[in-house]
Amino acid sequence: MSTDMTKIDIKIVTRIKYLMEAEKISQYALAKKLGISQSTICNWLNGKKEPSIESLWKLSDFFDVSIDYLVGKSDI
To answer: Phi and psi dihedrals of 35, rounded to 5?
Structure first.
C-alpha cells in the first residue's frame, strides 16, 4: 500500500511542476492565486506534504485539469 501512495505522491509533484512550467507561474504567484502560503507549495514540491482535498480542488480549477489528472489516475 505505501508503495502505491509513494507513486501517487510522486505523480502529484510531477504534475504540479509540469503545470507550473507550462503556465510559467512561480511558487509565489501560484500561492497568491490559490490563497495559500508559498512554503506550502514548496513543501508539496519537495514531497514533505501532500495537498489537501481543498488544495487539490483549487489546483484543479486554476489549471483547468481534473483532480484525477493531478493524482495520476488519469492522463487528461
So the answer is: 75, 35
